[in-house]
Write a structure and sequence with these properties.
Bound molecules: adenosine-5'-diphosphate, magnesium ion
Function: Part of the ABC transporter complex HmuTUV involved in hemin import. Responsible for energy coupling to the transport system.
Pfam family, one: ABC_tran
Number of helices: 9
Keywords: ATP-binding, Nucleotide-binding, Translocase, Transport
GO molecular function, one term: ATP binding
Radius of gyration: 18 Å
Organism: Brevundimonas staleyi
CATH architecture: 3-Layer(aba) Sandwich
Oligomer: single chain
């Protein structure tokens, strides 16, 4: 079983320590959700795990191999990264954008039938077939976010790392995207997400990593991760956990 791990990760930018002492071992076939306050280091950690940012010290490994030893093309075939911003600078058709997700596979002869079929599957999974020929900068934010999910899926990666992929989606499309992540995990993909919505995190995650001040505050199954004590220490708020009809709900009461 494939494992993505980091050991004693430390990231220092200028004089600021962004992450320190972060060790994780994450298995495929599960959804791991990273939560934590603004500036906790979630995006930095995700970029390190994707091999897109080199830590100041410590290591990231995919199975037994250090990520830094995989060439970028080999790494990109296995780990798809979906950045936080849904800004797309180019006026291209949605399908063209999704096709970019096949770049790590495309040989000298250009797109194969298999590449086209993978793009079709990714667009169907993210429910964006209807926008195939729309220019991406005419899509709504939520539609664009789904096209970017399709681009990440086009490479049929073993790992999908997505930074706040549900932000900006309406509730129905949040549910769709959540169901899609669950389906991917059930198919054996390692899904690692950062999320801001704690109730959604509880409903979606198999494992929750709480990051605060660049370190891991909790790393637990959802049932035990977000205790009032952890929420207080991480976010500085008093909050309670209740059961709603759709699953667990975090009710934030006040700052403490
Ligand atoms: P999060 O995603 O949890 O909000 P980030 O990983 O984006 O946190 O950032 C963590 C901290 O690192 C923040 O204080 C941010 O300002 C700082 N930071 C991130 N990237 C840089 C950078 N390139 N230069 C300086 N500070 C940075
Ligand atoms: Mg972030």
């Amino acid at each position: 079983m494939s494992v993505l791990s980091c050991t004693d990760l430390r990231v220092v930018i200028g004089s600021k320590t962004i992450l320190s002492g972060v060790s994780l071992s994450i298995e495929v076939g599960r959804i791991t959700v990273i939560v934590g306050p603004n500036g906790a280091g979630k995006s930095t950690l995700l970029a390190c795990l994707a091999g897109l940012r080199a830590p100041t010290s410590g290591s990231v490994a995919l199975e037994e191999a250090a990520l830094s030893q995989l060439n970028p093309r080999a790494r990109a075939r296995r780990i798809a990264f979906l950045p936080q911003t849904s800004e797309i600078a180019w006026s291209v058709e949605a399908r063209t954008l999704v096709e970019l997700g096949r770049i790590p596979f495309i040989g000298a002869r250009g797109q194969s039938a298999e590449d086209r079929a993978a793009v079709d599957r990714a667009m169907a999974a993210a429910h964006v077939e209807a926008f195939e020929h729309r220019i991406v900068d005419t899509l709504s934010g939520g539609e664009r976010a789904r096209v970017l999910i399709a681009r990440a899926l086009a490479g049929e990666p073993e790992w999908l790392l997505a930074d706040e992929p549900l932000t900006g989606l309406d509730p129905a499309h949040q549910l769709d995207a959540a169901a899609l992540f669950r389906r991917l995990a059930d198919q054996g993909v390692g899904v690692i997400l950062t999320l801001h919505d704690l109730s959604l995190a509880l409903r979606l995650a198999d494992r929750i990593v709480v990051l605060a001040d660049g370190g891991i505050l909790a790393d637990e199954p959802p049932a035990t991760a977000l205790t009032p004590e952890v929420l207080k220490r991480a976010y500085g708020v008093e909050a309670t956990l209740t059961q709603g009809p759709g699953g667990p709900l975090i009710d934030v009461i006040r700052r403490v």
